[in-house]
Amino acid sequence: MNVLSLFDGISCGQLALQNSNIKYDKYFASEIDKHVISVTQKNFPNTIQVGDISNLGSKDFPKIDLLIGGSPCQGFSIAGKQLNFEDKKSKLFFEYLRILKETKPTHFLLENVSMKKEWIKIISDLLEVEPININSNLVSAQNRPRLYWTNIPNVTQPINKNIELSSIVQSQNDIIDYDKYLIPDTQLESLSKEVVFNGVFALTERRTEEAKRIRREYMKKYGKDFSPRRAKELFSRNDNKANCLTATIGKEHFIFDGQNIRYMTPIEWERLQTLPDDFTSPISNSQRYKAIGNGWTADVISHIFNNIQQ
Length: 310
Hints:
Layout (H helix, E strand, L loop, with lengths): L1 E5 L5 H8 L6 E5 L3 H10 L4 E2 L16 E4 L23 H11 L3 E7 L3 H11 L4 E4 L9 E6 L34 H10 L14 H14 L5 H7 L19 E3 L4 E3 L2 H7 L12 H10 L3 H8 L5
Parallel strand pairs: 1-2, 1-4, 2-3, 4-5
Antiparallel strand pairs: 5-7, 6-7, 8-9
Helix pairs in contact: 1-10, 6-7
């Protein structure tokens, strides 16, 4: 089987194939980011990098059996300007569509974010399949709803593994340079005023006495700038899941690890995407966060691939 992965990123699709024990002969990866390419080549040295999708056509490949890709989502995401197909990155969907029509693979898979119904309909009409909406929280500790358009048959919802955020958190002793992940007091004060503590996760479930104690401490420390409403938001998530990872580590990705409020580590992000520890280790932390946030939840893709008849 020959596989062509468009917008390959760190090759989460290739990891999913291996996790599903699906044998393939050649894996072609279309990617232009040197950082993520280095991650792919470290983990999968036989990957054939083919460059920019806009320069590719069916003549460049043997028979493609599986075409996969997650076209850039910025134009569709509610976090963006919602320019949809006018966004210079999101309109690359049409490049995916072009390659799909030219290569005529046996199976295809396209992933993208949840979006407006009218945009879903346009993509569905062009691909001639309806998407299945799968939330990564069924197989990981991350809340990550995504749409998957595929002609792979019999794809259903994964069985809920009930994985909690606390199970993927590193202990302080396991984190190299632990202190650099801590949020400075000056920043904490600023954050409290911006009401962004809703992204800080208590590893203690529900409203435990420990959580209440910590809320009281922060209210005492910040006074009127940290209202009871904000204190409630500090522990607003009760599902013990992380917010959806994005291409940048931001205000929604703080964590309370039982001792301190800190940024999550790259390894914790990898675990949220069901990647092996240090899967992205060849590159800097900032590039790791970006690559992981742009990547796929490998176990969701593996679940879909399990329906491929070999």
